[in-house]
Specification:
The protein is of the alpha/beta class. The chain is built from 16 helices and ten strands. A hairpin with a 5-residue loop joins strand 8 and strand 9. The chain binds nicotinamide-adenine-dinucleotide.
């Protein structure tokens, strides 16, 4: 199939409203970081959209501009934040509680901006997140009323902040495990299920549906089912609204999607991969509930199967044992520690081991991904690209893909896809790395 014509990109004029569902560790770290960067008090390290370059043209041309200099992204100054959360704390109080950023160095200088972000009442039901039960909630007896309430909030936020465009991102807790079912097949069933308060309609689906109805791109930072259902995929593509998800690829899974392609590239076998984590933030507390953990576990486990392709390499990966554990351990707060033990098999079947101990900071890794997803989802919207944005797989543990396609998990294939999509958007040639068209005099 020929490559589609370059899209017409409408300009990024005016304000970009960013609504986060959840005003916890990730979203407050994002909001504070954007505010600090705006004021020149911090660098947006980890953000490809802000710091990344992209080669355009041939290697001999020496052109590697900053992505944001050649791709018409919204600027950080354009962004205005809003949020929902069942706890009434403003972003300053919530960030203080999360304990990710240093109080004096990084919270006090932007305290006023953070205090201005006060969460709207959440469409929340503790059935879906067992360990939480905050008071700042909408009436939870009717899903229809929750949906309408979210749409009203969006409209009010848009008017009060004079937003030209908006993006919504799920930075809320991980909901219990749900699979696509009868309620998620088409719009009639979905609408009926909302009216019937069907338990398979989770709050995250109501936020996503409200966003799509309002023409607002939706990105899902958690592993919840949310927009990954036939009904919302179709609704998004029919109405030309970008969607993407699921689950920010930040720590252990990021490493997996770099190491596993290396083993496969070298045809090294993997007998076992044992991953364990300790973390002590609210996310860790929520994931301590078996039903929320199951959602996360599925998301973390899927990666290796797809990368290693045991069906193609049964001798190397056919009997691999893969285990993932997450343990809630309060003393560490947001500073997660992820251990991996990998049992590798080499020439003639000789065993080797690799151990990785990643002492990371969960929200410090997640915030730049959230920023990029905001900016790129808005870009996709301005390009008229509706439905699943597979080129944003780079950011996710469980990338959403069209039915019938397998997800691409290898980080560097994902990066190539992302950059080639940007090149296509701005009318630059695709880079295939074939390299046979160079004629360099020796
Ligand atoms: N930090 C990371 O590295 C990382 C990586 C991948 C995924 N995630 C996911 O991102 C999400 C956010 O992580 P976090 O560390 O900020 O968690 P957090 O617990 O600090 O914040 C989540 C917030 O969402 C709120 N919330 C829950 N249900 C809600 C609802 N229905 N409506 C509105 N708000 C709701 C909670 O009250 C909480 O304040 C989690 O699902 C987590 O699993 C985080």
């Amino acid at each position: 199939m020929p490559i589609p014509d370059q899209p017409i990109i409408s300009p990024a004029t005016g304000k970009l409203g960013v609504l986060t569902v959840g005003l916890g560790a990730v979203s407050t770290t994002l909001i504070a970081g954007v505010e600090l960067a705006r004021q020149g008090l911090g660098e947006p390290i980890g953000s490809l959209a802000q710091m990344g370059t992209m080669r355009v043209g041939k290697r001999t041309e020496g052109r590697s501009p900053l992505i944001r200099d050649v791709v018409p992204l919204a600027t950080l100054d354009d962004i205005v934040f809003g949020a929902w959360d069942p706890y009434p704390d403003d972003a300053y109080t919530s960030a203080t509680r999360a304990g990710v950023l240093e109080q004096t160095k990084h919270l006090e200088p932007v305290a006023e901006a953070l205090r201005a972000v006060r969460p709207m009442a959440a469409a929340f039901d503790p059935h879906y997140v067992k360990r939480l039960d905050g008071p700042n909630v909408k009436d939870k007896t009717s899903k229809r009323a929750m949906l309408e309430g979210i749409r009203e909030d969006i409209g009010r936020f848009r008017d009060e902040n004079l937003c030209d465009r908006m993006v919504m991102m799920w930075c809320g807790s991980t909901e219990i495990f749900l699979e696509p079912g009868a309620a998620h097949t088409d719009i009639e069933s979905f609408e009926k299920a909302i009216d019937a308060n069907d338990p398979t309609i989770a709050p995250s689906m109501l936020y996503a549906y409200a966003a799509l109805q309002e023409g607002i791109p939706f990105a899902n930072g958690a592993p919840n089912l949310t927009v990954d259902t036939p009904v919302l995929r179709k609704f998004a593509s029919d109405n030309k609204v970008p969607i993407s998800g699921k689950d920010f690829k930040t720590g252990q899974t990021l490493l997996k999607t770099v190491l596993a392609p290396m083993f496969k590239a070298r045809m090294l076998g993997v007998a076992g991969w044992y991953s364990t984590n300790i973390l002590g933030n609210r996310d860790g507390e929520v994931l301590d509930d078996p039903e929320s953990f199951k959602t996360k576990e599925e998301s973390k486990l899927g990666v290796l199967e797809h990368i290693l392709q045991p069906e193609l390499y049964p001798q190397l990966y056919g009997d691999m044992y893969h285990k993932v554990r997450i343990n809630y351990y309060p003393p560490r707060g947001d500073n997660k520690e992820g251990w991996d033990n990998i049992d590798i098999v080499g020439w003639l079947g000789y065993p080797m081991q690799m151990k990785v101990d990643f002492l990371c900071r969960d929200s410090i890794l997640a915030a730049p991904l959230a920023l990029d997803l905001v900016l790129f989802s808005d870009l996709a919207n301005r390009c008229g690209m509706g439905g699943i944005q597979e080129w944003l797989s780079f950011y996710y543990k469980s990338p959403q893909v069209l039915p019938g396609l397998y997800p691409e998990h290898d980080l560097f294939i994902q990066l190539t896809k992302l950059k080639n999509t940007l090149r296509w958007m701005i009318g630059e040639e695709q880079i295939t790395h074939l390299g046979l068209d160079y004629e360099i005099e020796g």
